[in-house]
């Protein structure tokens, strides 16, 4: 039986009804306290539970697996609607729809899904990705964390850094090396309480979000927790396209939120006997931001519309992420400038939007790596970054 959310992906009326419901819920339950929540580093478990109750976690995960079976376009519309009421709540939607959970839902065994998805979709559990390492960031294939078979178990050794939600996660999707070479890269599932896993002291990003280093010292897990064995690296990276769609969606949403707050401000703030929006310099700043936001939104819509089986193409996703990251930050940064001290103050969400959008120009693939990928498509060839001897 086709779900209401699935039909909404092709039915504008149904989708509009869904978004009206989401907007009403967000205005009533998420907008109050949004500013305080933005400056709270810990994960908002209470909000996660509310989003789970509303069926807003696992939107694009199949109904058979406990999700809503919606299309990617619906999930994008929902995360943007929520972000404009409460940016921090949109981060929870990212974790429950666009992040590592998509890779998990796509490749997990029925037993793995039964063990973890109910809590993840109810907001009681949280999945964090363990990919980056001290010597393996953009060069992900240089990871050193190893998984060695020992009877019915795997023994994991290594270190992971920069993981979103790593401080609060209950489950980690960890990229590991089963042997030498890219062909032996895969992933495993590690529970927070597993013996041999140490979650380090929290560190802070510029946005106020926290992360913790993960130390694996003879961490022993059953082999039944292998998500993707040797040869799984390419499959895992395909899931990054969806993660980047969520990244791009929030960049645009926060850029628009800052834009709207600043537009309201300059329409009423008076200096030198007239409102700020009467000054040409202010008008041009908003005009430039509007063009950038609208252009990026069109590129994001293209990537989503052309997605096959819920997976957008690498090229169109890369273009959309680059455009959305730059447009979102440009709009938020301009909004802060137009609002002066108020925009720079923590009493406004504008400065938070500026800091948050800046981070997405690094997270999920830096702008420089995105430009490399775009250039490869333009010239129809690879441009390897690794040094040759």
In short:
The chain is 51% helix and 14% strand.
Rg calculated over all Cα atoms: 21 Å
Spatial strand sequence of the major β-sheet: 1-4-5-10
Largest sheet: 4 strands, mixed
Structural class comes to alpha+beta
Assembly level: single chain
Shape: globular
- Number of helical stretches of at least 4 residues: 14
Mean pLDDT reading:
93
Portion of residues in beta strands equals 5-15%
Helix content: 40-55%
Task: Give a count of the beta strands, DSSP E runs of length 2 or more.
Answer: 12
Our measurement of the CA-to-CA distance between the termini, rounded to an integer number of angstroms, reads 58 Å
Q: Uncertain regions: pLDDT < 50 for 5+ in a row?
A: 1-9
Run of helices and strands: HHHHHHHHEEEEEEEEEEHEEHHHHH
Keywords: FAD, Flavoprotein, Oxidoreductase
Cofactor: FAD
Domain Acyl-CoA oxidase/dehydrogenase middle: 129-219
Protein name: Acyl-CoA dehydrogenase
Topology at a glance:
Layout: H1 4-8, H2 12-30, H3 34-38, H4 45-53, H5 72-83, H6 87-98, H7 100-107, H8 110-122, E1 127-130, E2 146-150, E3 153-160, E4 171-177, E5 185-191, E6 197-199, E7 203-204, E8 210-211, E9 214-222, E10 226-228, H9 233-268, E11 270-271, E12 274-275, H10 280-305, H11 314-339, H12 341-344, H13 349-359, H14 367-379
Parallel strand pairs: 1-4
Antiparallel strand pairs: 2-3, 3-9, 4-5, 5-10, 6-9, 7-8, 11-12
Helix pairs in contact: 2-5, 5-6, 5-9, 6-9, 9-10, 9-11, 9-13, 10-11, 11-13, 11-14
InterPro entries: Acyl-CoA_Oxase/DH_mid-dom, Acyl-CoA_Oxase/DH_mid-dom_sf, AcylCo_DH-like_C, AcylCo_DH/oxidase_C, AcylCoA_DH/ox_N, AcylCoA_DH/ox_N_sf, AcylCoA_DH/oxidase_NM_dom_sf
Domain Acyl-CoA dehydrogenase/oxidase C-terminal: 232-378
Family: Belongs to the acyl-CoA dehydrogenase family.
């Amino acid at each position: 039986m086709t779900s209401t959310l699935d039909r909404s992906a092709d039915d504008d009326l149904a989708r509009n009804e869904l978004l009206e419901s989401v907007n009403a819920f967000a205005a009533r339950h998420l907008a109050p306290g949004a500013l305080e929540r933005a400056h709270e580093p810990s994960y908002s478990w209470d909000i996660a539970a509310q989003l789970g109750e509303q069926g807003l976690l696992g939107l694009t995960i199949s109904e058979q697996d406990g999700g809503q079976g919606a299309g990617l376009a619906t999930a994008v519309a929902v995360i943007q609607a929520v972000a404009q009421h409460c940016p921090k709540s949109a981060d929870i939607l990212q974790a429950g729809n666009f992040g590592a959970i998509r890779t998990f839902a796509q490749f997990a065994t029925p037993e793995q899904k039964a063990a973890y998805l109910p809590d993840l979709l109810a907001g009681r559990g949280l999945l964090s990705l363990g990919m980056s390492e001290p010597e393996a960031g953009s060069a992900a294939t240089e990871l050193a964390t190893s998984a060695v078979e020992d009877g019915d178990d795997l023994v994991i050794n290594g270190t992971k850094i920069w993981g979103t939600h790593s401080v609060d996660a209950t489950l980690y999707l960890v990229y590991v090396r089963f042997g030498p070479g890219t062909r032996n890269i895969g992933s495993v599932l590690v529970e927070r309480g597993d013996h041999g896993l140490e979650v380090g002291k929290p560190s802070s990003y510029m946005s106020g979000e926290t992360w913790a280093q993960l130390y694996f010292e003879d961490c022993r897990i059953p082999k039944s927790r292998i998500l993707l064995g040797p040869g799984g690296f390419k499959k895992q990276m395909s899931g990054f396209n969806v993660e980047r769609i969520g990244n791009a969606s929030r960049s645009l949403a926060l850029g628009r939120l800052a834009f709207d707050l600043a537009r309201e401000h300059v329409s009423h703030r008076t200096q030198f006997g007239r409102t700020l929006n009467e000054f040409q310099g202010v008008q041009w700043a908003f005009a430039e931001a509007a063009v950038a936001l609208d252009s990026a939104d069109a590129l994001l819509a293209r990537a989503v519309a052309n997605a096959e089986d819920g997976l957008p193409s690498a090229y169109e996703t890369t273009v959309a992420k680059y455009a959305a990251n730059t447009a979102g930050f440009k709009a938020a940064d301009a909004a802060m400038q137009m609002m002066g001290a108020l925009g720079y103050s923590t009493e406004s969400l504008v400065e938070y939007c500026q800091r948050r959008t800046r981070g997405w120009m690094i997270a999920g693939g830096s702008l420089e790596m995105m430009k490399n990928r775009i250039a490869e498509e333009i010239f129809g060839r690879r441009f390897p970054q690794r040094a040759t001897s």
